[in-house]
Design a protein that fits this description.
With 226 residues, the chain is an all-alpha fold. The chain has seven helices and no strands. Helix 2 crosses helix 3, helix 4 packs parallel to helix 6 and helix 6 packs antiparallel against helix 7.
Length: 226
């Protein structure tokens, strides 16, 4: 194995240019280092000095300005895939936890006083129940589509941007329906919003999760722009 020197400086500079998931980044850097070391070993066996062998290996590997964008695209795509898997798990889990708390502490919803429930409220409340599963389906389809597009040559940068936009759309959809239910309930029967603490806490968790997904989506767009 070639000794540290030109190769290590090259890999360190590459490390400084890349942003993304630490574990994936470490694997990519390790692969680059091993590839360079193998090439240098081959040149050294051919009679070159260790330093000249490393220098030639680095030259053939390519300048950082050319190599780094490809690695960055892989990191961006990896982050997008992780984010979509997070969406698939955390968002429906948050809804399920809220529903379990609601059923335990409140029980079945009673009708509003003063007449039948307006059709618009029925629509948004029922839609709010379907939203987590719609979001899960969208995230799952996006993951599969990303793999297909990747095999067809679509860059990781593009896939990361698409993933970020999908996640932002999911966040917007979930918050829009949830706020519609909250505002509608406040309009029709404000005291109903005074729920037991565990139910309110589950509701707060909903927004914490969605804000977290929004942050991950923003990072997707940032990584794809590096």
């Amino acid at each position: 194995m070639a000794e540290a020197g030109v190769i290590e400086r090259y890999v360190d500079e590459l490390d400084g240019r890349l942003r993304g998931p630490a574990a994936v980044k470490a694997d990519l850097l390790a692969e680059a280092r091993d590839s360079l070391a193998d090439a240098a070993d081959s040149y050294r066996d051919g009679g070159l000095s260790p330093e000249d062998a490393e220098r030639l290996a680095v030259e053939e590997f390519g300048p950082l300005a050319v190599v780094a964008p490809g690695y960055q695209a892989e990191l961006a795509a990896a982050h997008a895939a992780t984010m979509l898997r997070t969406v698939m798990v955390l968002i429906p889990l948050t809804y399920v936890l809220w529903e379990l708390n609601r059923m335990f502490w409140i029980g079945p919803w009673s009708s509003f006083d003063g007449g039948p429930t307006p059709d618009w409220y029925v629509f948004v409340s029922q839609g709010n129940g379907y939203v987590p599963w719609i979001i899960t389906a969208i995230a799952g389809v996006s993951l599969v589509a990303g793999r297909v597009l990747s095999r067809r040559g679509v860059s990781g940068t593009t896939l990361s941007r698409l993933g970020g936009r999908v996640a932002i759309g999911c966040v917007g959809l979930g918050i829009a329906f949830n706020l519609s239910v909250v505002i509608g309930t406040a309009t029709l029967d404000a005291p109903r919003l005074l729920m037991p603490a565990p139910v309110l806490l589950a509701g707060v968790m909903f927004y914490v999760v969605f804000i977290r997904v929004g942050v991950l989506a923003k990072r997707c767009l940032a990584l794809s722009a590096v």
